Structures
1.
Amino acid sequence: MSETESIQPHCLNCGTVLNDRFCSHCGQDSKEFKRSVWNVFFQFFETFTDFDNKLWSSLGPLFFRPGMLTKKYLEGKRKSFLNPIQMYAFFSFLFFLTAFYLPEKEGQSAQEEIQKGIRDGMFTDSVSESSDSIQDVTVKVGGAKISRNRNENTPGFHFNGLEDSYAQYDSAQRRKPEEERDGWFVRTIKTKMISINGRLKNKDETIIGELFDGFKSNLPNIIILLLPVFALVLKLLYVRRNYYYVEHLIFGIHLHCLAFALFSIAFLVEWAFPDLEELLNVVYLWFLIYAFVAMKRIYCQSWIRTFVKFNFLGATYTLSLIIGLALNLFLSFFLVN
C-alpha cells in the first residue's frame, strides 16, 4: 500500500491537538504509517543521515571553515547543520568502510599484505643470505624471555617458564603450594598464551586472519573511547575558561569527523590511482593546519598559546592512541579461540 497523505486531527503518539503536520509537543509526523517497504527504507536512511540538505550544508564548513560548525552549534544554530552524533556515525562508517572493505584490485589487498608480513615473521624458517649470521631472535618482556629459533623447524614463540600444553601447566600448578599458585588473571593469560603458541607451532595460519579481524572489529570502539580523553585534555587546558566539558566534546567530534572524511577520500583516491603515494601526507598536513586554526578560533587565545596547547593536545592524544592500539592488539590475542 502506498503512503497515505491524510493528516490526523490529533497526534497519534501523545494525543496533542495538531495545528500542523508535525506535533508541537513531541514532534512526530502526523502521516499514517501506511507505506511500501521502499518508503520505509528511504525514511530510515533519511532519518539516519538527515539528508534534508543538512549534510550538504555541513560539508563546506567541515572542510574549509575551521571551527565554524562547533561555534554555530554552541551558539544554538543547530537546525541548519547535521547533528554531531549523526555526522560522527556517518563519517566513521565511511572511514572504516574505505580503510578495510574496498574491493580488491590487481595485486594483493592491504589486508593481505599485512597478514603476509605477520605470517612470514611467524612461520618462515629460512633466513635470507644477507642475514645468515642471525640465528635466534630473543626479546625480553619483564621477567619473560620470548625466543624464536630460526634453525629449528618449530614455528611459533617460546616463553621461558611457560609449559607447552595446558595439561603440563595444570600439573605444574597442582604441585605448588596453594599460596604460590597463579591467580585467576595470570592463569587466564598463561592459558591463552599456551593455546596461541600451540597453534603457531602447528602452523595454523588461520590465527593470523582471526587476529586481524579482531583488531579491525575493535578499532572503532577504541576511537570512540578516545573522544572523552580528547575532551578531558581540552577541559584541563582551558580550565579557567567558561566552557563545559560537553562543548569540548562537540569540538572533538567535529575534528574526528573531518579526519574520517579526509582519510576516506584519500583511501578512495589511492585505491583508484595507486601512483598518488604522497596523498596521505597532504591530507595529514591539511588536517593539522585545520585543527590548529579551529582551536585558535574557538578558544580565542593568542597564536603562541594556542600553538603550545595544540602540541600538548596532539602529543597526549597520540600517546593515548598508541596505548589504545596496544590494548586492542592484546585484546585481539586474548579473544582468539
2.
Amino acid sequence: MAASRHRRPWKKGFEIELMAPRGRSRRDLAMRVADRVGGQVRTVLYPQSEPSLVPGLPVFENLVLGFDVRDAKGERVALLVDDLTLRDGLNPQAASLPGWMRILSDDARLLALVTEHCDPKAGLADILTPIAALFGTKAEHTEGGITKVVDRAGRSVAMVAPLPGERERPCEIITPPCVNDSEADLSALLADANALGFSVPREAAVHIHFDAAPLCDPAALSRLVDTLHRHGAFLRELVGTNPACVRLGPIADEIAELVRSEAFLKAKWDQARTMLVETKPTKYADFNLLNIAHALPDKHTFEARIFPGSMNAADILRQARLMEAILMWAIEDAEGAKRDDWNLDAALDLSPADRTFWADRMAKA
C-alpha cells in the first residue's frame, strides 16, 4: 500500500442529539458544563431550517437560541442548540417560557443580518429593532407576542415569536473540532447531561464532521463516494442507523455517476469541486457532501450522519474510528486501487479490538 497522504489523528467534531427532561432546558446543561470547567455561557442565535408547507417556499429559515460554553481561557467547550427534527415526547401545546424565542424569515441572508446586528439576550419586543433601523422602518408588535419587521415597501424581512411546545428541551451538543480522540472530554460532557436527566430521544442521531482537506483530490473523493454509494445500505445496518431518524438518504445517483466519470477523475480539484456543486448535493443525506463541494470556510467538512443516538462516549468514538478508517482507505493510493477491493476485514486500518467488534457486528448483519 502506498504511503498515506494524511496521518492520524484526523481532525473531527461531534454533534450529539439529546433531550432534556421536562422542567429542564439546554441552557441548564450549558450552565452545568460552564460551572465544571470554570467558564462562562454566552447566548447566541443559531441557524436552523425546516420544511415549509407554503407553496413556492421549500423551507422556513430560523434562528434559535443556543448557548456557547467557553472555558476559563475562552476556548469553546461545547455549543448547545435546538434541533428541529427532535419532536417525540414534546408537548406541542405547552406555553413558551419567558425569554425563549425563534426568529423566522424566508431568506437566510436576512437572518445573517439579524445575527450580525441583534442581541440574542434582548427581549422579544426589542430584538429586531436594529434590523428595522437598517431598513428605515420600525418593528411592528402584533398579537401573541409576535414582532415583525418589513421594509418600506411592506415586504417581510423577519419576525420573532415566542417559542412554544417545549422547544427549550431538545439539545444538540456540538463539540469543537479536535485532533485527539479525547474520551475523557466527551465523557464529561455526557456525564453532565446524564446528571441532569437528559436522555437519547427517539429520533436521535450522532453526526461526525471530518476535516475535508485530505479529501480534496478527485481520485480520493471518487473512491470514497463510489464506495459509500455501493455499500451505504450495508454500513447503515452495520452501525445500527436509527430508523426513526429523519433527513437521511443514500448518496444521489447523479453524484455517484459524476465521481466515476473520466472527466471528474482527470479534473483539477477546483474543477472537480465545481462539477460536484452542479449536482446540487444536499446536507440531508447519509453522507453530507455539501460543505466540501462549496468549500465552506467555517465548516469545510465531510459529515457522516448515519450513526445512532448515544450517550456513551466509547461507542461514539468507536464509530468515529470506523469512519476514519474508511476515509483513510479512500485517500491511500486512490489512483491505483481497484474499485471492488473494499473489505472490512482486510482493507481498513482498525485496532484489533475494533476489528473484532465490527467483525462481530458484520456477522450479525
3.
Amino acid sequence: MKELDANGVLRFNIDKPVDFAWDFHRNGFRVINKTSGKEITEKTLTSFYLRKPMYFDLIDVPKHGCVENWRREETDELFADFFRECQSRGLVALVRSQNNKYGKLRQLLVAEKYFHVASWHFFHGELSEELKRGRWVAKSMTQTPIGTDKVFFVKEVDPCALDLSYPWFVQERIEGEEEVTVVYIDGKTYAANASRDSFDGEDSRKSIIVNPTAWPKCSLSADDERAIRGFMNETGYRFGRFDFIRKGGELWFLELNPNGQWAWLDEKNENGLVTLVADAIKAEDRQHRDRPSRQGPSPSSRAALP
C-alpha cells in the first residue's frame, strides 16, 4: 500500500466485510472503510486492481449450505461483476486478458507452442489406455475447499485407482530438478526457483507455507523470456504468475495463474518485486486519467480499488 501512495487508494479486504459498507445502484456506487473513513465512488474511481481475493479461514459447508457461505459467494460475485464492469470501461489495472479468459485447458493447448508440456487428461467415466501406464499426478481446476481446513493439493496417483464417478485432472509426472515461478508484470519478469528435493510431496504450496524464504530470485535465458512473452502476447494477459518445472535446463509448463499470489516471493521488497507491481499499476492509472475520452464518469480525484 505504501508503494501505491496509500492516501489515494482504498483497499477493500474481502475477508473483513464488517470493516466496510457499500451501495451499488443505478446511478453509481459508494464503498467506504468504516474505520478510516476513506471512501470511493463512481466520480473518484480511476483504476481497479483486483488482487486475488482469498479467504484463509476455510469453512466446512454442510449439505444444505450455510449463511456464511452465502455471504461469501454474494460478496465474491458482486465484486467480480463490478470488476467486469470496470473492465468494459477500460478502468482495470494489470489483471485482465484482452483475448477472453484462459482456463487450464486452453492454457495447456496454447503452451504447446512455447514450452515443453507433459501429457494431460481431464476425464470422467472412463479411463484411456495412456493412463494405465507411467506416473501421474492429480490436480484441481479450482480452489474450492473440500472440507474444514482442507484443499486439493497436487498428489501422485494411480489413475486406475480413481473413482470414475468424479471428474479428474491428471498430468504426467515431470522428473525435474527444480520448480521455477515467474511473475510477469506488463512486459517485465521476476523469476524465483526452489529445488524439488526441498518439497514435501508434489505440491510446492506446502513449502511456501512452511518456508517462504526458500525461493531465491533466479535468472531466465533469452529463450525462456521469448517463450514467456510469446505466450502472454497470444493470451492477451499483462500480468500473471507462471509455474514451471525445469528439467535438463529447459522449462516445462504447468500453468499460468492470471492473478496469482506474488508478494510471498519478496515480502520485504528487497529485490524490488513489490515496486515493480506498484509502478505498473500507477503507470496504468496515469493512462486512465490522461485519456482524452474515457468511458464512464470522469473522476474528480485519483483513486484505486484493490
